[in-house]
Amino acid sequence: MEFTVKSYRFNPEIDEKPYYKEYVINDFPGMTVLNALMKVKAEFDGTLSFRRSCRSAICGSCAMKINGITKLACKTQVSAEIEKFGIIKVDPLGNMPIIRDLIVDQEVFFDKIKEIKPYLLGKTDHINDDFKALKEGEKIKQPVYYKTEFQNLTGNNDTPNCILCECCYSECGGVVANSKYLGPAALAKLYRYSEDPRDNDKNGSRLVNGSKPAGMFDCVHCQACEEFCPKGISPVKVIVRMHEKAIKNSITFSKGAKHIIGIARSIQETGRLDEIKVAVDSVGISGILNDLPVALGAGLKGKMPPLRLKLIKDMEDIRVAFKDLNLEEKHD
Amino acid sequence: MINYAYYPGCVAQESGKELDNSTRFIAKKLGINLIDMPEASCCGGGVVDGFDHNLKLYINGRTLALAEKLGYNILTVCNTCTLTLSEVNEELITNPKSLEKTNAYLSKIGLKYSGTVKVKHLLYIIRDEIGLDKLKQAVTYTLDGVKVAPFYGCHILRPSSVVKFDDVENPSGFEELIKTLGGEPVPYIRRTKCCGFQTILVNEVTSTSLAGNVIYEAQQNKADVMVTPCPLCHLSLDTYQGVAAMNINKKLSLPVLHLPQLIGVALGGSYMEMGFSRHNISFRAVMSKIKQNKLK
Amino acid sequence: MLKHDVIIVGAGLAGLRACVELRKRGIDAVIVSKVYPTRSHSGAAQGGVNAAFDENDSWESHFFDTVKGSDYIGDQDAIEILTSEAPGNILELQKMGVVFNRNDKGGISQRPFGGQSFPRSCYYADAVGHMMLHGLFDNVLKYNTKILYEYFVTSLVVDNGKIGGVVAYDIKEGRFHGIAAKSVLFATGGYGQVYSSNTNALINTGDGMSVAIRADVPLMDMEFVQFHPTTLKSTGILVTEGARGEGAYLLNSLGVRFMSKYAPKAMELAPRDVVARAEQTEINEGRGIDGAILLDVRHLGKEKIMEKLPQIMQLSIDFEGVNPIYEPIPIRPGVHYSMGGIKTDNNGRTAVEGFYSAGESACVSVHGANRLGGNSLLDTIVFGRRAGIDMAEYIKNVDFGKFDESAVRRDEEIFENIKKSNGKERHGLLKAELQEDMRKNVGVFREESLMKKAIEKIEELKERAKNIGVDDKTHLFNTDIVEAFEFKNILLIAEIIARGAIMRQESRGAHYRNDFPERDDDKWLKHTVAKLNASGGIDFDFSPVKITKFKPQPRTY
Questions:
Q1: How many CB pairs under 8 A join A and C?
Q2: The pTM is what?
Q3: Which of C40, C96, C321 comes nearest A124 by C-beta?
Q4: Tens digit of pLDDT for each residue in B272-295?
Q5: Domain holding B195: CATH number?
Q6: Annotated catalytic, C513?
Q7: Residue B8 belongs to what domain range?
Q8: What residues contact C536, with CB distance under 8 A and at least 6 apart?
Q9: Residue C71: domain span
């Protein structure tokens, strides 16, 4: 089959502005988008630039936008793309500055990984630890950790499987909104270490730091990170688990945590989402005043939500749920 | 008549009342019988999970059990309600432990869930159950000459392991529906991106910039109107459009409709019936254009 | 010019492990890598890392298995270090944050591996290399290490037998830098790209070995090239030996578990050289299926496959279109690992003072003529750690060596000349020709007549390589020029492999000669040592094998 690869091209050293270049090539059975790009580069145009290494979806080098969606070129079949889109259109990753062609500057992404302290906290770095070479007949005694202690870190789709390929980061709505947002991969890494039984995080600093602005409460829940993760990991799900963990550990200084508690409290009291109450709980009265133009605008249009909500029918059922789960005392 | 347990969600019953009204309007015209569930609670959106995962299971398990008791599948008109109910449904069906503890709670309030209910958004109920042919027959005013930018948003598409209505990479349900109504779907990249609503109270500037980008792109692509299947997206896109314009420093003025409003107009609904006066950005100009497209 | 006490070239497991030792001692060590560290190919290792933990196992048993696996040409003093330090090293990694699957007693879960007499491969599902790589990299971040990534090392600077530093090309900026150092470690990995149908990353072009031998540092045992028995038919992507460790069968076209013929006791868990040859024999004798045989895991059941082998399940689906839960996976032998490499002692020291190597780029030698599965990750951490500690000691008492900056200009000129050339040869196409020829003529089964053809091809390609031109004349992230240079590296390695293989007139481990089918301890129980001569040709010498405990015996499984 003959098909077209249409690639974003831009080399600031010689090009005034970005453009697309098309290459018509033939496929072979099982050809991946990476194979196609390599064929173009080897046979027709050595100037086409992209990163690649393992070609088996484990190194994370070749993430790029393929027909608008961020994927690993190495595990994307040409035939499936052609069937759906009729072309292989490739663009560099989103949310990152472009260096050249399909190559982006990843420095900020890696800085964010570093920022979450991706290692066990506490004293683990003695130079003369108890390492030893065994003598004849000698055995070593292992420290004991049970399966359950690592239960959130040893599943197929658990966070340690992250390959830092940046697919999630490229698609993340939170990063589009706020370039300082840590993003899904760094937060997944934060979760990975916060769930590690060996982590000596006595004062809960991970969740405290993670709750700061541009941290885990800036997640917009757009689900793109889960959808487009080539390793089946769901950063958004673990971000939500960290929300729960933070709130249960009374780390509630953030607007985001207050927002969540406000919604839960509203449901507990009325069975409904009380829009005004949630707004007051989340941002406080001063926040609401800042929003006054919007609120008034909406109000004038008759859109203002009712000030006192009717309770849902059988409201008692909901109270039973809160009581059952021992969630009541949080709402004094 | 097809019966559905109707789950409008909170916003459609509060600030977005026009969504509820227009849904009821088109349901009648399309032969959908909406059975109200006055006992149903808020789904808790994307955030109740971050408060307590079991609470999410319990309150939504309860809603699913209510529908099961009625014997109907659930019709939703909100992306986030669709996802939240679907997620809980999926978990209860696939995870026996979760079902067991949820049923332990439900038994205390005289309910039980056995996993038979399906949750489906109005958009895909019309496409799959009613049929676009039937919709076409019901049209009295075509959207001929109207450029409509469909805004899918997130939770009606993603994660596709849970909400399996459309092709997540290249959805088409919305476009097909717009074409059925005689309108011209506007292609633009951000139709499947995030509207930012979830963080609107956490970080308004960054959140509204997302909605702003969406509207700006649709405007650049010559859209006359944007339509969304989600009242939360609608809040971001319409109510906050002025704020978004300020935050991204662009001129924005695009009317944004709820999905059943767009359908309702084509089915002969009036400006008042559709509740357009409750929107920030006026739909009047486009409306009068459509009113000239009356079919014999 | 940049200046650091220590330069670590290559950021896979061996490099990162050495780096942690240096950085935790507060030493100014910089990482120089042609890719970002987590892109290194160590991350693709799947199945396990060996260490004797079980009370019924012993490191001495691991020691013997490894000596036997090496076909008695591994150095036994080094293998003793490898195996006796294995458990301690694994526990150190665990302390640093690496996660292993757990057994019911709360210890590290272990699975059987080929050629091992006890289940002693520690694992994290089937992604243990990934887990170790990221775990170690996280520690390197912890010590706030300077990382010059996407820097491509083109030369070693040596003066009078002492290291001065390296010349490196900053790929992003397109600029050469001299980096002076008291000590340099090459942990640059292997050369799988010398062959077509290999399991290796595209970056595995034998750069470190080529740069070292050009600086007069000898390479050892380069003719021993490991063919992994189970690589996906269409792409050569690795399918872990852990699959067989978990109980997978190898079937020929008749549906027969043919290993009963070749290794009646060990069956599928014979060492890689034995299994690869058995497969190739079945294929050659017409009992293959379209040039492949089958790896069958179906009887393990969906649950076990999803729990223990999730990555290979996904790879089979994505790259071969086969779901191993329901269908056997078509596989064939593919080039996987380099037993040979830069000749080092047990602390990673080489012939040049202050210059070290560890991991796949090095040859200590612990793998001899055939590496056992699960021993390569072990090699990287044991000898990476030892090299790091030794370098830390070494730099205490030495000054910076002399760094002749003309070396930087020389490499600059090489690149500029390639760019200026109007040559019509495309390095991408030459590489493909070389790879295919090496596969055909210096493969699983070797014989002089075929290998001589390979040499002819190599000589032809050396001539044609003079006419390589590149399309990309710019500086910014010019991958065209980098690939052109990488081609020169793999061409040199190919020649060393082929000439060494012709010379070794016996069959030992992975090196099998149809024309000399027996092992010949009288003549060939010795290491091959390769050096470049003044005219660019390759000279061979030999060095003795260290035999301490186990006398060579016939090797059957």
A1: 199
A2: 0.96
A3: C96
A4: 999 999 999 999 999 999 999 999
A5: 3.40.50.11810
A6: no
A7: 2-121
A8: none
A9: 2-224+337-396
